[in-house]
Structures are given as C-alpha cells and as structure tokens.
Amino acid sequence: xxxxxxxxxxxxxxxxxxxxxxxxxxxxxxxxxxxxxxxxxxxxxxxxxxxxxxxxxxxxxxxxxxxxxxxxxxxxxxxxxxxxxxxxxxxxxxxxxxxxxxxxxxxxxxxxxxxxxxxxxxxxxxxxxxxxxxxxxxxxxxxxxxxxxxxxxxxxxxxxxxxxxxxxxxxxxxxxxxxxxxxxxxxxxxxxxxxxxxxxxxxxxxxxxxxxxxxxxxxxxxxxxxxxxxxxxxxxxxxxxxxxxxxxxxxxxxxxxxxxxxxxxxxxxxxxxxxxxxxxxxxxxxxxxxxxxxxxxxxxxxxxxxxxxxxxxxxxxxxxxxxxxxxxxxxxxxxxxxxxxxxxxxxxxxxxxxxxxxxxxxxxxxxxxxxxxxxxxxxxxxxxxxxxxxxxxxxxxxxxxxxxxxxxxxxxxxxxxxxxxxxxxxxxxxxxxxxxxxxxxxxxxxxxxxxxxxxxxxxxxxxxxxxxxxxxxxxxxxxxxxxxxxxxxxxxxxxxxxxxxxxxxxxxxxxxxxxxxxxxxxx
Length: 523
Known about the structure:
By secondary structure, the protein is α+β, with helices and mostly antiparallel strands.
C-alpha cells in the first residue's frame, strides 16, 4: 500500500509539473556567474550603464529636509522584492547569519544533525525540514558543492509542495536558489526553466492581475533582460504597468520600475550588449540568440526602429513627469531621470533635444547645490559598449592555466559622444585582443562633457578592457583524454587559430569568452 501511494503521489506531482510548464508556455505574459553570496541573483550580463541606478554615494544633491506636506496615501502592498527565506526560529536565523559571514562548514555540521533529528522525530517530508534544507543548500553553494546544493533545494521544494500544495508560493525561494546554482554551473536553459516555473507558481497562486504578483513578475522580467531576451521581458514589464495602474493609479511612483524596464528592453534591442559569437567580428554581426524560441535574433547593424525609439522615449518621459511631480522628495532622482532621457536622445542622434535635457538636469541640480551642478557632466561617462568576442579556448587537453589579459585604449570623445582618434596604449598579451576591442570601442557611445552650457569634445580619454584567456600547451596534459576526430568541432569559424599567425590573432594563446571591462573613461 505504501508503494502504491508513493507512486500515485509521484504521478500527481509529475502531472502538476507538466501542467505548470504548459501554463507558462501558453500565458500571455511569459514567452519565450557565481554570486558573492548564496541566493544572490546573477545574470549573464550586467545592465547597460544607461539604465543603472546611480549608487547613493554618487548622488551629489544633499537630501531634502522633511516638510509638513502630507504624502499621497497609497494602498497596502507587498514589497517589490522576490520571496526569500524567512524564519521565526532564532536558531535558524543564527545559522542564516553565519552563512552570510561564510561560516559554511560549521553551519553544515549543525544542519545535518538538525535535519536527521527532525526526520527521526517526525517524518522525511515534515514541513519543519523546508528551511533547514534551504540553509543546507546555501552552505553547500558557498563551499562550491553545487550538485549537493541542488539536491537540498530540490528536496526543500518537494517538502513544501507536499505540505503546502503544488502551487504554494513558499517554494519560490528554493526554486530561485536552484536557478542561481544552475547559472553558476553555466546551465542557462536549466536556469531559465526554473525562473519560468517560479513565476508560473506565483501567477497560479495570486492570479495574473494581483499586485502580489509584482515581485515575481519583475524578477522574471529582469532575468529575461539580463539574458538578452528583451521581447518577453517587455511584455512582463507592460503587465506590471497594467497591474500598478489598476491598483495604485496612473500617477503612482510604483510605475517607474516597469517604465524603466520597458525603455531598457527597447534600448537593448537597438544597442545589443555584446557581439554575437556565431560570426567573425569583421562581418556584420547579430547578438546572441535569446533563450525564448519565439524571440527573433536582434540585428545590431540595421537602422533604429522608429516605433522602438518612440515607445522607449515615451516611457522615459513619463518617468520624468512622475519624478517632477515629487521633486521635493528626491531631487537627485529627477536629475537622474532627465539624464537618462537626454542620453536616450543622444544615442538616437537627437542632439538638440539631448542638449536641452542635459541643461534641464543641471538646472535642477543647481537649485540644490551650485558646486554639484558644475561637477555634473564634468567628464565623459560610458553609455554603451558592445563587448567583443574573445577567441575560443584550446581543447581541455591543450589548455594551460587561466590568465587575465587586458587592452588599454586612448581616444577622444566628441561633443556627440562618439569615439575619435582611437589608439592602443598597452595590451597583454600583445596583439591578442587589440583589434577586437578597438572595433567595439569605435561603436561605443559616451555622455559628453558639458562646459559653459555647451557639449564639448574631450581629449585623451582611456579605457581598459580585461578578459580571461588560456595559453595553449606545447604538449598535451597527460591527465586529460584526447578527443576523437569525430568529437572535434568541424566549423572553421570555431577552430583555434594557428600558432604561427601574428598581430591580432591567437598566436599567444586563446581567450575564454567572458571579458570584463572598466566602465568609465578617465583622463
């Protein structure tokens, strides 16, 4: 009888799993590197500088004093953050704090005893096991034992589904952790499946128009955006805007997150964050194919789409209006909104509108601090840089240790934010990535300097691009197997360059396709 009941339970869970995936695929809203600490969200690419919120330390406007003006009343609403691990047990909270300070081994030993005791006193699927299992997964992730961490998270999900229901939102915290580990392991499709499953759980639990869905909706939209899948991300951001308008009104500040996300998706469609790995960089390029099957490849060589420019600009203008209506509460946010709208116009070659908006931003800042207004746009700031393709690493049996290379460039930034007179100052290894980085820098765009209310050229700016590469071994590593001929990549575009090639080739080694770069230009 126990065996039959177990089989029926497993069959029910499998059917629910398949129905959940089908609902996600049919839903109108969803188409479609290791973090510093367990549970952090990490995408494959950072947000473009144009849409990053400036850190608090860089906000030069002093905070406004509190006034007696009554603030607009708002409905009670959930925080706009995804569900996370919560516990009222002080002992478990202590273990969570220990994980935050990287005391993984001590925590893991304590959790193993705690889990064993709960299993003895209750049962293998006791509800009290959920939080300890998630903490165990966090500790294992911190130790780099990713397969074991996935087992702990998977078991926590199973425990919550058995006790709280197949669509219990409490399981989402564990599912997000599963996705995070899969990202670390480089399993992008697997991580995408877990992100979509988590959103499906929340949507079935709360409904498609509930404000309680907003945290999960933003989470999945941000994931799509970070993985260069802007089209389904845009649909989710628009769904969030609709929910906020229905719940809080069309003048709610909660609209800003969705509006900014919509503008970012249009920006990414027109300015891809990296060059496609599928073609040589000296040919017309496309961006990497997004994860969703319904989303087309983005062509970075075509002219900007007029509709995209218009809709993205309207979203940013609406953010400016919302910020301006509450400028006294946060003048720095209004300045940032003006700058982003100005940057948008600059990138789409609307120079006159961009200049006017930059002056508006400076005027708002001057009302708070003349010194801060003079410092605004005193040096160029990077808005867009399409990261180049790094050469393919050699086969594992010919691969040496990973090393860090760099290319340092010097150039001038025009009054329109374009790059002029580019040249290489230094590179290591010499010639390995020089041409590719220079080619990407030629299409980069900066926010120019503003001097005496005029946009001016900036001379002698520098940029340092860093990347990881592997030197090819002269002799194969005897500890690694040599691949058969049929296992070798027949595509000549992916074949490693000959060691005799010089200049900007792979003569000195092979680079791994994960470059990082310095974000700002300096004199």
